[in-house]
Design brief:
By secondary structure, the protein is α/β, with parallel strands linked by helices. The chain contains 14 helices and nine strands. α4 crosses α5 and α11 (301-308) packs across α12. The protein is globular and about 65 Å long. The model is unreliable at 1-22 (pLDDT under 50). Residues 1-23 form the signal peptide.
Length: 396
Amino acid sequence: MRNSLFIALIASVSFLFTTCSTPQLPPKPVLLSSTQIVFYGNSLLQGIVTSNDSLLYQPADYQISINRITYQTTLSDGTTVTASGIVYVPSQLNSPNKKYPLLSFQHPTAFSNAETPSGTDFSKVIFSYPLFLATHGYIVACPDYIGYGAADQIPHNYEHRQTLAQVTVDMLLATKTFLTQKGINSTGQLFMAGYSEGGFASMAAQKLAEERYKDDLPVTAASCGAGPYAMPAFFKYVTQTSTVGGIANYIYAWETLSYNRIYGLNKPVSYYFKAPYAAQIEQSLDNARTITTSFDQVCTDQFRADIQNPSSPFGKALADNDLTGWQTQTPTRLIHSQEDEIIPFLTSQQTYASLRQRGSSQLTLVALPTGMHVPTEVLFVRRTLDWFEQIKKTTY
């Protein structure tokens, strides 16, 4: 009897250890709906112009179907929510059965729904990066992120690695289901690209795809532009160095308060920011735009001390969002301007050095000598497309 009880106890402990120590994947996303928003024939595409000489727009004989999909994704606490995104499907008049690779394009910081993929006014035939990429022969999937589109009732977890990674990966899985349902065949290649928050989202999603979805989402190549991947180093820099103020303060304060909420730190705004700035930001985050003082002068001494201490609750939150401690064998480019005034170039430098040290032999750093943060996105898209075109021809 005692032996039987002992064996049962061991079995129970073994079961608990196995179930607790093995990370469980969230349920695979369910494609809930797909709707064609608009179809742009070639004559419409030919009429689109871009005033930027850095991007040569040549729609050739393409036509584009633009579709909105909704799908289920999972938050970090296990809650299932409905998310949305846009899928651009190209076809060519002279090659109606041609297959195209899939390109996941993550948008930069959006301050409203109107700046997200689903918020685009598709009744106006205007130039956009996803449309530009689609007319070069890519099926382009663009997640809205949590906090926008179908999930706009939930706060956006700004620059939160896990949330951005999961919603992007689930968008890709849902897009593949959508393509199957519509009988659209791709080449099997998968490219990932994004700039600013989109760069951070792209790297986070690439890491998640490589580590946990390798069979479903084998990544062909990834291009990440000007993201705060080295999160602890990023916060140390902006809280110790003179910054430009204005929109930068909005971004840094938004990220600070997002982590305060996400990680249950529950500190008052005055814990992080000095008077009179704390009262202004507490009244409305938008007020941070009007604060021209350098961010390091806005922050309290206790907040700066927390950032310097990796064992502090905020230090642990930063570490949880750090993307420097992994290895990739996927061809990957980090593209960043050395003059970036919002996201310092050091974030790409440190990420490159750390990932290379860990054996990421196909990682390269493209250091642009000049260019402010927002305008450099144009160069990022051009450099990314040129590189993807080379890979597309050699791997398919």
